[in-house]
Prior knowledge:
Number of strands: 13
Helix content: 10-25%
Low-confidence stretches: 206-225, 396-401
CATH topology of the largest domain: PH-domain like
Number of domains: 2
Shape: globular
Domain PH: 14-137
Number of helices: 6
CATH class of the largest domain: Mainly Beta
Region (Disordered): 208-233
Radius of gyration: 23 Å
Strand order of the largest sheet: 4-3-2-1-7-6-5
Distance between the termini: 19 Å
Order of helices and strands: HEEEHEEEEHEEEEEEHHH
Protein name: PH domain-containing protein
Pfam family, one: PH_26
InterPro entries: PH-like_dom_sf, PH_domain, Skg3/CAF120-like_PH
Amino acid sequence: xxxxxxxxxxxxxxxxxxxxxxxxxxxxxxxxxxxxxxxxxxxxxxxxxxxxxxxxxxxxxxxxxxxxxxxxxxxxxxxxxxxxxxxxxxxxxxxxxxxxxxxxxxxxxxxxxxxxxxxxxxxxxxxxxxxxxxxxxxxxxxxxxxxxxxxxxxxxxxxxxxxxxxxxxxxxxxxxxxxxxxxxxxxxxxxxxxxxxxxxxxxxxxxxxxxxxxxxxxxxxxxxxxxxxxxxxxxxxxxxxxxxxxxxxxxxxxxxxxxxxxxxxxxxxxxxxxxxxxxxxxxxxxxxxxxxxxxxxxxxxxxxxxxxxxxxxxxxxxxxxxxxxxxxxxxxxxxxxxxxxxxxxxxxxxxxxxxxxxxxxxxxxxxxxxxxxxxxxxxxxxxxxxxxxxxxxxxxxxxxx
Length: 401
């Protein structure tokens, strides 16, 4: 775990790109226009890890004249959505005529906010988009690797654990935060595997062996009746509560989950795992908001059942393993894949060697991706393919693997 923390620290200090930008706050997190709309502002930006620092050029000049230091605005882009816009024209206002800006990209970082950035050239535009996406991808990969270490340490290497799913399902009380929103909601979540689910992996299957001690009593099988019919594809559903009347209305659906990991919280007390992050495709329910029918993320905080220590990481991992099993991620439901050379492994591309603090890919290599492609899973798949090619000698390699 110590090496994992060193990698996280290296990522936080890695400079992905820096340069001049013209920026504008189009919307605040609540979706409203800013009250003190300053329009387009000349700025200097630097992306260090997933922290984008922005210095206002006018404020720098004023601070220099007054003999003081100008401080930047910091923006966390770890969960950001980055879109290429091309050109953007602002409407005419009482303060001035309409203006057209070229090489523009947008960033959504919190709630319904929208930040616009205009770059001095097409090359700078491609570099900024590649840097932002690569930094976020590196961050999510490190969180996948941290999760793998956590499973190996907590669940005895995680290779032979029985699935928490009962007849292909697991459900319970959770708090969730939906991409594009800022509030947390207390709701009921149900994870359902697909029709290909093998009953031999199921916590409801008995072959004479005891049920896992990590399986709560409410989620242990009753062995009464026959298993329900399974859907053709796995999905996650969110309900208002577990009451029968609330189960008739699905508030949110998440399908095609391609990534699921714990988010580490690093503090003076050490490292803690407080929540899960899932990436998939939302349904057309109203709760999805602006992310309806789109690829996005869902942050989940499982609530411990009575008698279960809420600080016990095994409770969090029980939910995580259930999601991995349902969506067949990282080698589950058979066995976790810890091979750092296998693209399906959560440890794929684990950085080693004298230059491991640089992590795995350079921004210049990531610039070969189409900046117009904003689908999270597609960008992640292409970056993973580039990394695999690089590890196999098809790109210049600066690491000892």
